Amino acid sequence: xxxxxxxxxxxxxxxxLAPVVPGSGHDASAQQYAPGPEKVYFSPTGQYLEGEFxxxxxxxxxxxxxxxxxxxxxxxDGMTVQYFERxxxxxxxxxxxxxxxxxxxLGADSITDELRNSEPFERRGEPEVGRYFPETxxxxxxxxxxxxxxxGGIRIFGFPMSTEFVENDFTVQYFERxIFEYHPDHSPExxxxxxxxGAKAADQDGVDREPRAHDGETPEYHPNLWRQPPxxxxxxxxDDGPHGTWTPQILxxxxxxDARATFFVLGSAANSHPGxxxxxxxxxxxxxxxxxxxxxxxxxxxxxxxWQIRATENAIRNAGGQPAPCLRPPYGAMDGNTRSFARSMGxxxxxxxxxxxxxxQPGAGTIANHVVNRARDGSIVLLHDGGSSRAQTVSATxxxxxxxxxxxxxxxxxxx
Length: 416
Fold this sequence. Notes:
Helix content: 25-40%
Structural class: alpha/beta
Mean pLDDT: 87
Number of helices: 15
Radius of gyration: 30 Å
Number of domains: 2
Shape: elongated
Strand content: 15-25%
């Protein structure tokens, strides 16, 4: 039966070699990555991959679809070819540009007479679900269809040659240029794999698989070679303002880093400092609701709650700002009605996960260290620009911006 003994042996060897394994979190969506190197070395197999074959390998699925290269490029049957664990790439220079690099038809080549005459390979009528191909009389459904479409469809894998069926304890489906296996215990990116038919073909064809020495200059393979590190975002929020002394200094600091922040303002303070509300709006910050006069919302009636919110909205609008539909209850105080009251008025309640208690004035360095040491992507930081003296908060904000900027953080505004 097809590949029973030889393929099992190849799988066992490769499992030992592979440093990138199911569960590694590799996201092979090329659109999320930056242009990569022109040449890469794969130390587990001692082979290089470069140029058009490298671009094709990465763009159409990389490691999960093709596996490691197991040979160098070389000329075979008048074509430039390279063998991979799960496929063989061929260069067809006389084809249209988008069809010049193709997978060899290993899926069709792997169909034995016994398989061809079996029930899964009989032509079928169009099913109720899935995508049907009259050219071969077969369809693709569910996860196999999603995988087939995601990584290039007919151009990459060819038409389906069978229905799904069980072989070697896996759910499989044969295509002209590949075979799909379903591995339900793997992480999502690695659940659908091609068996190691490329490595098997290399052995059958007597291809030179001798490892090449690393030249010391070519980068070794890692998916992050293509990845620009995703920006980490932290959300600085300021309560109780605006204040005529502290808020302008904080806005100045934010501007130096092209940073955005969220200001949970008091309606009474907005009435007193309309120019600062206009500046927040102009500079791209979120202006959110912190009640009109810093009243605890625990125990409030709905009419009291509604007045606090609407009065603050009106103060922000009258000052020239656009109130965001986000609310932070003063003191973080809520009861069982607070969230339902907020929802009924179209508001989300936004709390925090980093609280340096700057209102205690423990020292600017203490405030900054508390924030920086706990910063994570998506963290929401509670600070204050109103109330009593916020000189320490201003100084701490300068340190926070400088230190987290150096760590690659960007500073985002909530509720936008």
